[in-house]
Design the sequence.
């Protein structure tokens, strides 16, 4: 049995940032647990640039970004166990893990930060009919094959889904000599960043077909082709008569990411049905006392800079809990996704303990152009507008942010007591409306 003040599960960008932030806040006995052979998480296979523009003010590759935090962990002497799989996290903060060197480990922690990241949806999650040949893989797996293992997964490629990893791999495979025939997207818009559509597809002449999907996979030993079809935007079902055969030896799936939350569920943590991640407050605390979460395990991000920010908040909050444990303040505000918004994180705000400025992260559910964003607080005295902002473009593939100042929130609260139901709504109202009720 081992004992630590803080155990951070996952040594990707969120976990590394959480460990460093907790150390700086005064907690020294920290353990990082990582199931891979090296720290850094998914960043190690993301050899393209575009990382760190906000956090460091520099244009870095994934490994370069990770290396800066790995160095900070090493300089502080923070313990790390690699090649170690966590099997269970209990509500009273026992961690059961296993590795080759130590065997079965039982670790007691005063606080835990969950930073397991997310995983890709597979063919089984989207029910594509057809045979089961080799050559059908997720975009992230292909990325690891090419960038870390030195294998080219195929020479004629069709990509299903316009997520960022799929877009980036379209460019990467083209540079390695493969022919990327097309990228198909079920929706009428991309789920990836606009910059990746431009830099990874348009710059290389790779077609992106909206409202299209794969309806059949062909081949026995190896995939020989796919049947694609146009999709009705209303029903999301293939249109009869629009089918056509496209030959290929590889089908890459870039059809969404899901937070890794088996451990969260085991610990009895409340999960958000939309994000599939833990419900968290403004300090990234989950519903189980002493367990915090940050990064892609909470909700899927498109920028690593924001993953790092959430990890740091979780680390600092965990340190405060360890050094000065006390119950959360009774006054709380629930956040709500209003018209045009899919979800809002954090889902809970404690005004008495929040930072001077709170970042609300959210995604819209459709493409909005030149629309007004409204953040309103519902109290026993009615709705109060905390802020509005007109934005030129908002798309589901790019996470949006709205910053709320503590002083503005308190001014809107007025004389509200802890018994009043309080709700903060983020919405994109229709013309003529001030807020979503």
Sequence:
């Amino acid at each position: 049995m081992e004992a630590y003040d803080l155990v951070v599960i996952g040594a990707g960008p969120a976990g590394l940032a959480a460990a460093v932030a907790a150390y700086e806040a005064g907690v020294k006995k920290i353990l990082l647990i990582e199931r891979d052979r090296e720290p850094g998480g998914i960043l190690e296979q993301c050899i393209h640039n575009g990382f760190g523009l906000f956090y460091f003010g520099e244009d870095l590759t994934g490994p370069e970004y990770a290396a800066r935090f790995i160095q900070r962990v090493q300089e502080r002497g923070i313990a790390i166990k690699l090649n170690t799989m966590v099997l269970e996290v209990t509500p009273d903060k026992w961690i059961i893990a296993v590795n080759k060197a130590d065997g079965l480990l039982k670790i007691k922690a005063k606080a835990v930060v969950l930073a397991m990241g997310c995983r890709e949806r597979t063919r089984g999650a989207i029910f594509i009919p057809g045979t089961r040949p080799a050559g059908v893989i997720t975009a992230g797996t292909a990325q690891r094959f090419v960038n870390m293992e030195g294998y080219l997964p195929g020479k004629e490629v069709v990509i299903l889904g316009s997520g960022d990893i799929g877009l980036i791999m379209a460019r990467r495979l083209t540079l390695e000599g493969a022919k990327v025939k097309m990228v198909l997207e079920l929706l009428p818009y991309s789920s990836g960043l606009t910059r990746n559509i431009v830099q990874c597809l348009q710059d290389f002449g790779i077609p992106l077909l909206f409202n299209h999907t794969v309806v059949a996979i062909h081949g026995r030993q190896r995939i020989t082709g796919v049947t694609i079809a146009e999709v009705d935007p209303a029903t999301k079902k293939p249109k009869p008569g629009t089918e056509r055969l496209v030959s290929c030896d590889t089908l890459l799936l870039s059809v969404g990411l899901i937070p890794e939350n088996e451990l969260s569920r085991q610990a009895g943590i409340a999960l958000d049905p939309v994000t599939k991640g833990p419900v968290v407050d403004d300090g990234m605390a989950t519903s189980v006392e002493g367990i915090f979460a940050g990064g892609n395990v909470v909700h899927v991000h498109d920028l690593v800079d924001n993953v790092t920010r959430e990890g740091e908040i979780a680390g600092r909050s965990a340190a405060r809990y360890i050094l000065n444990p006390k119950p959360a303040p009774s006054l709380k505000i629930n956040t709500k996704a209003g018209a045009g918004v899919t979800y809002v994180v954090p889902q809970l705000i404690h005004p008495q303990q929040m930072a001077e400025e709170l970042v609300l992260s959210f995604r819209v559910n459709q493409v909005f152009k030149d629309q007004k964003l409204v953040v309103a607080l519902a109290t026993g005295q009615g709705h109060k507008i905390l802020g509005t902002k007109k934005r030129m473009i908002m798309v589901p593939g790019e996470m949006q942010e709205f910053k709320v100042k503590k002083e503005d929130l308190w001014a809107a609260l007025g004389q509200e007591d802890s018994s009043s139901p309080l709700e903060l709504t983020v919405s994109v109202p229709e013309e003529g409306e001030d807020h979503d009720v």
In short: The radius of gyration is 23 Å. The chain has three domains: 2-119+258-323, 122-255, 333-427.
